[in-house]
């Protein structure tokens, strides 16, 4: 059953992105230069990501109690919708480099927010405390990666990005 949870995620994250803009797949895989503790966070991010995907692959969706199942379904669905919107906006970058289209008008990091909602939804659907804990490690480490990305964006785009930071939230 877990493989079925992963299928839409991979179809959106890689399939839709490649369909809309093959070059965007490479951009999405790019990590900003990291310093000090950010490197540790990067490894925590990568390892927790692998652990999450493996845990979901072998997960069994539990429909009882209905409140956990319903909440999980809502978060899972919201994560996939946000991921689709993020991928579509990411595949159409702005000419000046700072993407303010689509969900990037509401969040500077909608893909990371989508991953969090999706993984948390999977944790509730599987009623897996381990998956929930891995999701928290993933999100905490992602925050440090985002800080490195923001530093890189300021270096690349200067005041344009600083102004973007002032008007658009980091998350949702």
Per the principal axes of the C-alpha atoms, what is the gross shape?
globular
Tell how many strands the DSSP assignment holds.
Answer: 0
- Average pLDDT reading: 94
Question: What is the count of DSSP helices, taking H or I runs of 4+ residues?
Answer: 7
Query: pLDDT under 50 segments (min length 5)?
Result: none
Order of helices and strands: HHHHHHH
Radius of gyration: 16 Å
Distance between the termini: 30 Å
What profile does the largest beta sheet have?
none
* Helical residues, percent: over 70%
β-sheet strand percentage:
under 5%
Provide the structure class: mainly alpha
Report on this structure:
The protein is mainly α. It contains 7 helices and no strands. The two termini are 30 Å apart. The relative contact order is 0.17. The model has no long low-confidence stretch (mean pLDDT 94).
Give the secondary structure arrangement, pairings included.
Blueprint: H1 2-20, H2 22-29, H3 37-57, H4 66-90, H5 110-126, H6 129-157, H7 159-167
Helix pairs in contact: 1-2, 1-3, 1-4, 3-6, 4-5, 5-6, 6-7
């Amino acid at each position: 059953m877990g493989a079925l949870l992963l299928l839409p995620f991979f179809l959106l994250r890689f399939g839709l992105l490649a369909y809309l803009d093959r070059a965007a797949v490479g951009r999405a895989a790019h990590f900003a230069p990291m310093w000090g503790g950010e490197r540790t966070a990067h490894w925590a991010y990568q390892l927790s990501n692998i652990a999450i995907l493996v845990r979901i692959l072998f997960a069994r969706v539990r429909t009882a109690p209905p409140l956990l199942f319903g909440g999980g379904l809502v978060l899972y669905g919201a994560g996939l919708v946000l991921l689709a919107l993020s991928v579509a906006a990411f595949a159409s970058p702005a000419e000046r480099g700072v993407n303010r289209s689509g969900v990037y008008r509401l969040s500077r990091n909608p893909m990371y927010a989508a991953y969090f909602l999706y993984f948390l939804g999977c944790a509730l659907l599987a009623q897996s405390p381990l998956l929930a804990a891995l999701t928290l490690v993933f999100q905490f480490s992602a925050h440090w990666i985002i800080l490195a990305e923001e530093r890189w964006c300021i270096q690349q785009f200067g005041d344009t990005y600083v102004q973007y930071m002032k008007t658009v939230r980091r998350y949702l």
